[in-house]
Amino acid sequence: MTDTEPSAPPQYPLLDLIDDPTDLRALPSSALRPLASELRAFLIDSVSRTGGHLAAGLGVVELTIALHRVFDTPHDRIVWDVGHQAYPHKILTGRRQRMGGLRQKGGISGFPKRSESVYDTFGVGHSSTSLSAALGMSIAARLKGESRQVVAVIGDGSLGAGMAFEALNHGGPLDPDLLVILNDNEMSISPPVGALSKHLASLLSGRTYTNVREGSKQALASLPELRQFVGRWEEHLKGMFMPSTLFEELGFNYIGPIDGHDLDAVIATLTNMKQMPGPRLLHLITQKGRGYAPAEQSPTRYHGVTPFDRATGRMHNKRGTGPTYTEVFGEWISDAAARDARLIGITPAMREGSGLVQFSERFPDRYFDVGIAEQHAVTLAAGMACEGLKPVVAIYSSFLQRAYDQLVHDVCLQGLDVTLAVDRAGLVGADGATHAGSFDLSFARTQPNLVIAAPADENECWQLLETAYQHPGPALVRYPRGTGPGVALKRGAETLPIGRGEIRRMGRDIALLAFGSRVPPAEEAGRILEATVANMRFVKPLDEALILELADRHRLLVTVEENAIAGGAGSAVSEVLAAHGLNVYCLHLGLPDLCLEQAGHEEQLRVCGLDAAGIVYSVRMEMEHIDLCAEAPRLDQRAA
Question: Start and end of every Transketolase-like pyrimidine-binding domain (predicted)?
Fold first, then answer.
């Protein structure tokens, strides 16, 4: 079999019987293990065709079957953290036939989504939200007098985030009817870091504890005179062998760890724990990528995949030519670190995604992966900057939202020398609204002392990163996912003047003021419209002189950005014009005021009118309106 000759899809006789979890609950117990095999095979086959998140789902096949077997879903609530692992859940809850449209326009989301299914009890995409949401549901059930089980499934990587601990700290004393399942696979996206992760990893050897506890309890319980000491002995043994006391001190009855791939054991344990009152936590040990050798061997690489050949695991590369913006950043930070020993690289659990693998290997003492802790990442950088270091925080736009207070209070308010390399700015295609970087210009440009830049191409990305780094204060460079227009890099320490744009094309009547990723399509539209095109480069400070010059020489100013129109770069341009008392026709093109569903990136841009054709259409419609307005006084005069 070759890459071009896929095998016939396997048959799924048991899976074909399941339209929803009631069908699953009707199966005999003897059918569940074969069902797990079919579910895993179907998942591999399906994701090999569409791409998506693979390894996480493979690790929770048995858990997903057990949850829908034991609990009366959707009456009982299951809340998945992040949602990377939720594909088996989707398959078992009536969406198997729709998996061919996964993460595509008009298809189903790659994450649990309330509007998609009653079984998706909470919309997710970002990590560490499940415990708070599930606690809220449990409290609501109590207040409404409803009897239902609430289950939160969270991974060891997500558990390290502050929000998860806030929920545990708050929830335990409330004595909610809440089951937390800790899916411990020793992985998040990048390999996990931090004391808690190491702590949980040590429990793998703690299976001795489980065997010793059960055997010794039985022996002691058989002796009536020692029965009273069993409970006290168990607590001492827990403290000796494993830190379950961490959870129990927070008020959660801890059970585990157990093998998360032993389906019979998981079902039996969940059945028992379903009857237990109050807050409890089940600790499962699972393997990310379970059942597919390439994913087992490289769970990070197979966390998120493009379509791939099932037999070989080889992914079909759909990326454009040339380096991605992420790769440009990765090369730049290593180059800059070699020139400046003060440079520190920081990422919140996104080493691979942010392009920091090479840097982490070359400069391990200056590389800090803080785990899924965006707030901590930004304030950690602020503390380093106070001591004369020059930290660079590599973070996705949608994840920077989680550290907004830290950006405001800990960095910008103090004017500290922190560089933010903001990846995935703008639309992100198949990951959809939860991961789109739609708002960073809107929320960041309000901050005093902050320089904000948006490169038009790969070489400008390098130059603006260097410019931001050399600036002795807070600076943010935002760049999109994927490849750029293919401009060759000129490596080195060259910087660009802060707050200065450039004219890329001279025209008449119309001026297109483009920011970042929208410069190339604006240039294409400019040629069609015979319009002037400006690469603005900086959102803050804006090139006011250039804006005033363009306003003086053109009938219409058009701003184009891959950010929300509300409060974005276009709004900043209008503020400049208003401050100078200029009454100029303006058209702002950007992301609409809605949550844009998943689709291909280029499809999304077309829908928003942000490709060249969309820009041309919008500008021509606006010019027709302007011309009609210019004709209106003459029509009134003729009527008089």
Answer: 323-487
> CB 221: neighbour CB atoms within 10 A?
11
- Mean pLDDT across 309-323: 82
Amino acid at 258: I
| Interval 550-559 mean pLDDT | 97
Does 199 appear as a known binding residue?
A: no
**Known binder of ligand: residue 126?**
yes
Pairing of strands 538-540, 451-453: antiparallel
157 annotated as ligand-binding: yes
486 is in an annotated binding site: no
Residues recorded for the chain: 640
**pLDDT of amino acid 633:** 58
**Domains plus CATH for the chain?**
15-302 (3.40.50.970), 325-478 (3.40.50.970), 502-632 (3.40.50.920)
Residue type, 46: S
User: Does residue 358 surpass a pLDDT of 90?
Assistant: yes
Nearest CA to 113 out of 633, 444, 595 is that of 595
Active site residue 217: no
User: Which helix (H) or strand (E) segment is 304 a member of?
Assistant: strand 304-305
Which amino acid is it at 486? G
Ligand-binding site membership of 471 (annotated): no
Question: What single DSSP character describes residue 411?
Answer: I
Residue 631's pLDDT is: 73
* 402 in active site: yes
What is the overall mean pLDDT for the chain? 89
Report whether 420 contacts 393 (CB < 8 A).
yes
pLDDT interval class at 4 (50, 70, 90): very low
Among 280, 402, 424, 540, which one carries the catalytic annotation?
A: 402
CB 522 within 8 A of CB 512: yes
Task: Consult the annotation and say whether 442 binds a ligand.
Answer: no
DSSP secondary structure, 453-491, as one string: E--SSHHHHHHHHHHHHHSSS-EEEE--SSB-S-PPP--
According to the annotation, is 272 in a ligand binding site? no
What per-residue confidence (pLDDT) applies to 316? 85
Query: H/E element holding 50?
Result: helix 32-50
Active-site hit among 38, 62, 374, 562: 374
C-beta atoms surrounding 219 within 10 Å:
11
Query: Residues with Cβ < 8 Å from 501, sequence gap 6 or more?
Result: 513, 534, 535, 536, 537, 538, 543, 546
Amino acid 171: pLDDT: 92
Using one digit for the tens of pLDDT, what is the confidence trace for 277-294? 999 999 999 999 999 999
CB of 190 within 8 A of CB of 156? Answer: no
Cβ density class 305-342: b for 16+ within 10 Å, e for less: beebbbeebebeeeeeebbbbbebbbbbbbbbbeeeee
* 37 annotated to a ligand binding site: no
Higher pLDDT, 216 or 463: 463
Triad 129, 88, 38: Cα angle to 5°:
160
Alpha carbon distance, N-terminus to C-terminus of the chain? 82
Mapping DSSP to helix (H, G, I), strand (E, B) and coil, where does residue 497 land? Answer: coil
Distance CA 621, CA 608 (A): 15
